[in-house]
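Form 12-C: Joint structure prediction
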Amino acid sequence: MSSTTTAPPAAAPSKEDRRGLADLWLRSPTLGPLIALAIAVVIFSLTSSTFMNIDNMSLVLQQTIVIATLALGQTLVILTAGIDLANAAIMVLGSLLFAKLAAQGQPPLLALVAGFAVCTVIGAVSGALVTRLKLPPFIVTLGLLTVVTALGRLYSDGNSWPVTSDLLGYLGKGSYLFGQFYVTPGMFVMLAMFGIVWYALSHTAWGKHVYAVGNDEEAARLTGIHVRQTLFSVYVVAGLIYAVAAWQALGRIPNADPNAFQTGNLDSITAVVIGGTSLFGGRGGVWGTLVGALIVAVLRSGLTQAGIDSLYQDVATGLLVIAAVAFDQWARRRAL
Amino acid sequence: MSTQQHEQDRVEPGAAEPVMAATGLVKRYGKVTALRGADFELLPGEIMAVVGDNGAGKSTLIKALSGAIVPDEGEIRLDGSPVRFHSPLDARKAGIETVYQTLAVAPAMDISSNLFLGREQRKPGVRGSVFRMLDRKAMRAAAQDQLDALGVATVQNIDQIVETLSGGQRQAVAVSRAAMFGTKLVIMDEPTAALGVKESGQVLDLIRRIRDRGLPVILISHNMPHVFEVADRIHVHRLGRRAALVQPGDYTMSEVVSLMTGALSLDSDGALVDPSGHRAEVDEQGHAVAVDG
Amino acid sequence: MSSTLRTVCASAAIVTIAATACTSTKSTDSSGSGATGSAAGGTVKVGLVTKTDTNPYFVKLRDSAKAEAQKQNAELIALAGKFDGDNEGQVAAIENLVQQGVKGILITPSNSTGILGALKKAKDAGIVVIALDTETDPKDAVDATYATNNVTAGELQGKYVKATLGVTAPKIIMMDGTAGGTVDEMRHRGFLQGIGVAEGSPQIVGKANTNGDQNKAQAAMENLLQRSTDVNAVYTINEPAARGAYAAISAKNLQSKITMASIDGGCQGVQDVKDGKYLATVMQFPKKMAEQGVDAVVKFAKDGSKPSGFQDTGAQVISDKPVAGLDIKDTAWGLQNCWG
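Section 2 - Result
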């Protein structure tokens, strides 16, 4: 039903016009998702009296934070024409390290540093496997998904670990702005992360190389780009971002659970794809991903408040993914 | 660089020091010998076409010159001094740019980004050194200058995405990039292979303009009319070595084809001879026939 | 492009096969150690197949079964699916156990219907099969079932919430598990029976599938509360769901208005009750299931008598706020008897 929100405008009279639209889509891939988000927000505002108010906007934002941060790392990997199935598992392991180390009496700061280090190292391991052994990222991260999930359960003894330290729960501890809007440090951290990665992708040579490698790896190699170094760095940075996501997760629920976020990897891919980043690499960007994550959260929030069963919410999200990819393909065929 | 200057620079073969010279190149792949003592030379300001039948070792020669392979024997000199390339990057650092048949462009990126791909410029000062910020404005301006200088008029907008360009325009982008960064010479691999008549003409013009600006060009092509249209000299490659070095005005296309296939060869006077050593020429049907003399 | 897709699909297929292979390899590994440990006609071999080997609940079940087997001088071979719902993994485990000549198989079926064929083969081979924790559908696919009556457990949760609310009419939010799950449906039904509200009644303000995941429960509860905070009762499928729901409720400062309870009896769940995050939880007893299961198999090996029917291993309300008419144990007792 809500998939219609992203469908291309029905009127497409001449070939020229359609080519123009497709060209616009290629140039600004964030535009489509943004329009879809706007349409969803308008519809839910009209159908539900409780949707469009300040505290719900805050909630939607809070619900977006963890998946959006995961999806930020995922965006980098997908831009290089890879995929990261292990991201949520890495994040969960990070959160378990934070919580258990602190619970065992280590200083929270040390727990934080250790968690960040481990997540980054696991990112480096995926990067090394992809670049050195030349294995497909799908296989590497699928294997790591299993390994890291098991490591998390071993380390946690299968139990969840409550967080008592203020530092570890810091990102979720906010205050009310304008009376109603609950603002958490986590929101700023998320936006800052997106800002930094956007800058790196669009304003540095590294970013150009990430796009070029994802667009055409052989061409990138021939133009003198250090393809392996670029790919490796992407997985390392992604690992670091997953550690931030782990910290964000403890801000949401002060409890690290080895069984949490089992669909986090797919949820993050969903956000990336709805956000207009191509699974074939080299096209897209981080703001689209943020919008994609927001669209999923808005759909859940709006449909829940409209009293629609959660299984239909899954149906809507799934249709949106298909619509987004279909539109991306259509636009590319048109433009060429 | 003006055309007049080019005329001054242009020298008769043998009179000037070659920009690039290779002697006795040998390359073996297991039992197969792809290069058997091949020679090559490129003079300043010339377009040297390299022609040869499939399997003649033409691409192995080009790979050796562009650094993609390391020859087993022989020597390559650049401006008189010996060089040894271990990778295309080495060759590039020495000022040799290659335009690959695949073009090596990132289709989803704009023209300006593609021209500077792998060689991006950063902003001056802290923004560049600490924040690694790209100088997009400067790169765009330089890209526009380059296209203007080479007379690439068909591309209007430097921000256009490469995949929305025609084949000829993409070729122009790849050639412009090579001309922009090549300081010694440019190697072009079949630049007109995938193009129509009109676009081929534009690319050939582009190749001439690059030469006219003082940058010698090595042109690998299967297309004899194109070779005769732009080449100053033709290197005929056969059985892993240089079979002949000719000027287009002195021989017909059919004769060059005969040299390629081995139907004819050149004797020491530059005359065409058949395998038995008799003077020969090529008739209207393209067959080599003996001439009584 | 399509070739990339094809590669991905092919890779997915390979990996699926590899994953299945892993499960069976794992089973064989355990069986290997089992075979070496048993003398030909000596100890009784008991097979145990749990849904997963990571959930503390199943860990408790396995450890209790091991201890009981040791006491009975029997040998326990414990296998597990890879995840909740891993029918293939469970089927492979059953087949392996049959191969090894176990006397009985204790199983917590992932999907009650998915493994019927394998169970029948085991029974045909003269093995006694007992379901633990979860019933099969149909029930007679196994010889006997030792489990919590999940309808009763749900009912106890409902009764407790009803007693706490007193005369106030309930306005309920239901944090369900997975759509279509047997246990999920039973607890849900039991709760509504206990609180005296019919399915589909307007008194159910909202419900959501949480998959028992704390984060999904949190987001679902936030969204439902956004719709209306006029809620006074919350049903939760298990304790992680309750934990997530609590995060949403406390963010809105509604703890004092809302009566929430849960089911499971995990140690952290009991601790949460003690900390006042929700009022009560209904404890299950995996230890009892495991012990009775092992005992039944050993007895069968001795005298050939098969157990039958459904054996309720009990459900106990744990709370520090007793209500009239219900048998309630406090959290101190709960912490001594909890699992995980």
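Section 3 - Comments
Chains B and C do not touch (no CB pair under 8 Å). Residues 197-212 of chain B form the longest helix (16 residues).
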